[in-house]
């Protein structure tokens, strides 16, 4: 197992992503699916206009707004399960910390197109983006709840800047659109129970279709300056921490938050 984890770490370092097929059992998936769908149905009802017009994802799944304590605990324990923490610790060996969870689904308008992006482009201008991809990165750990078209990624782009083609498409300039095809893109189909690990700052886009519903956990290296992105409501309190098996990634986040408040 150790050698396999080393192989996955090497693959991530070189390509910016990897997939482990059939990583979770049907029992594990059934439990996760039930909890996430409870969130999703309640969230949709509360955000009906946004959902119908433009939404393709939601976030703060572990928060208190849409899930009861028992369901939140189920998610915390899934995120901290040995299967998840083995991979998390292999990819981020230095005090990995929990950032957020997201849920990705198909937009309701058929004409709504997907788009190429780096997550860091929403926080930084060009020079900031160039700097961000050379520093500590946030990592997505994606679990598709159903079979889906998956993702399209640009391998290796987590460590290098865009080609001219990639930049023009990603920024939708020079008569290009962010939904245009890229010659460097690689499609990664996913099935329920797979685990896709990928850098948030590599060039990527989701592929719409089928019964797309993917649960993402975002983890960051404690050396990175990301703690301000963490919503307090999405973290377990002291009582719940005692009920979580191996809550290290949450304790790391809580520790970083305590430092930031000093």
TrEMBL record:
Annotated GO MF terms: dioxygenase activity
Segments crossing the lipid bilayer: none
Superkingdom field: Bacteria
Cofactor: Fe(2+)
Keywords recorded for this protein, A-Z: Dioxygenase, Oxidoreductase
Gene3D superfamilies: q2cbj1_9rhob like domain
InterPro entries cross-referenced by the UniProt entry: Phytyl_CoA_dOase-like
Pfam families per UniProt: PhyH (PF05721)
Protein name, per record: Phytanoyl-CoA dioxygenase family protein
Organism field: Psychromonas arctica
């Amino acid at each position: 197992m150790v050698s396999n984890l080393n192989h996955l770490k090497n693959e991530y370092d070189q390509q910016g992503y990897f997939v482990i097929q059939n990583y979770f059992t049907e029992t594990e998936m059934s439990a996760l699916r039930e909890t996430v769908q409870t969130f999703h149905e309640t969230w949709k009802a509360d955000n009906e206009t946004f959902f119908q017009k433009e939404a393709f994802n939601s976030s703060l799944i572990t928060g208190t707004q849409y899930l009861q304590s028992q369901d939140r605990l189920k998610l915390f324990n899934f995120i901290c399960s040995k299967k998840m923490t083995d991979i998390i610790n292999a990819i981020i060996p230095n005090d990995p910390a929990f950032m957020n969870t997201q849920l990705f689904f198909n937009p309701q308008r058929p004409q709504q197109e997907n788009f190429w992006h780096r997550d860091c482009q929403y926080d930084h201008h060009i020079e900031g983006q160039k700097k961000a991809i050379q520093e500590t990165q946030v990592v997505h750990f994606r679990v598709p709840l159903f079979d889906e078209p998956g993702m399209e990624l640009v391998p290796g782009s987590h460590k290098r800047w865009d080609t001219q083609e990639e930049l023009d498409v990603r920024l939708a300039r020079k008569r290009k659109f962010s939904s245009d095809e890229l010659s460097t893109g690689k499609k990664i189909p996913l099935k329920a129970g797979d685990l896709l690990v990928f850098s948030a700052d590599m060039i990527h886009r989701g592929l719409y279709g089928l019964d797309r519903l993917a649960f993402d956990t975002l983890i960051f290296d404690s050396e990175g300056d990301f703690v301000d992105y963490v919503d307090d409501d999405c973290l377990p309190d002291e009582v719940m921490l005692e009920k979580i098996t191996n809550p290290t990634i949450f304790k790391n986040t809580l520790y970083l938050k305590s430092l930031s408040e000093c």
